[in-house]
Amino acid sequence: MSVRRLNPEQPKSFAFTPTNKAWAAATIAKYPPGKQASAVIPLLMRAQEQNDNWLCEPALRVVADQLGMAYIRVYEIATFYTQFQLSPVGRMAHVQVCGTTPCMLRGAEGLKDVCRSRIHHDQFKLSADGNFSWEEVECAGSCANAPMVQIFADTYEDLTPDLLGKVLDGYAAGKPPKPGSQVGRVASSPAGGFTALTDPALYDGSGIGAWQHRLAEADAKAVAGVAAVAAEKKA
């Protein structure tokens, strides 16, 4: 991980586009009076998306003024969360490599080596063509499908160095691959496919009648048993 600081080179100003300005006003209006600061993260995210996927210092001030917050409070938030980029990132992709324990144990170091060789040896540095950048981050929340990376809003999971290379090839060609598992897993299912609860009757509704029949049989058997006991007593 690294110390997070604002980029030393900053634009002179920032302003939301008319569309984003209207969106920001509608977002702020969702919160009760006096609680407008709760909209700080979505507004910062929208400002980042508008500004080529990084947050400049003037944007922090614009968001702070809209929400009536002290500049330092917005700065604290922007420097805390790794979803916010404080320097220019790759035009096509900024690769966040999870380096927390599950991903580390499953090969995250190999993914970082790919980034070092294909993008730049150092984190937060642009590739020679300016299209890519990368960084190591803490847990990105896909531990069951480790190792993984996040590129902007999408996650790519179950990676190997070769598979990450293919993901980067897709972005370089302007055809990002489908997010999620890159080995065909569904959600966090076992690598070889589902091994439990595989009978469709357990969840498709087709077994409801069968269960009702079995319950009716059990009820009839119980009634017959009671009747038999009563008959024996009369005899």
CATH architecture of the largest domain: 3-Layer(aba) Sandwich
Order of helices and strands: HHHHEHHEEEHEH
The percentage of residues in β strands lies in 5-15%
Q: How would you state the average pLDDT, rounded?
A: 91
Question: What strand line-up does the widest sheet have?
Answer: 2-1-3-4-5
CATH class of the largest domain: Alpha Beta
Q: What structural class is derived from the secondary structure elements?
A: alpha/beta
Report the span from N to C terminus.
86 Å
Broad shape: elongated
Please describe what this structure looks like.
Helix 2 (40-50) runs antiparallel to helix 3 (57-67). The protein has helices spanning 18-28, 40-50, 57-67, 71-80, 101-105, 108-118, 161-172, 208-234, and strands spanning 93-98, 132-137, 149-151, 154-157, 180-181. The protein has a five-stranded mixed β-sheet with strand order 2-1-3-4-5, with helices on one face. The protein is elongated. By secondary structure, it is an alpha/beta fold. Helix content is 42%, strand content 9%. Helix 7 links the parallel strand 4 and strand 5. The chain has three domains: 18-80, Arc Repressor Mutant, subunit A (Orthogonal Bundle), CATH 1.10.10; 93-181, 3-Layer(aba) Sandwich (Glutaredoxin), CATH 3.40.30; 202-234. The model has no long low-confidence stretch (mean pLDDT 91).
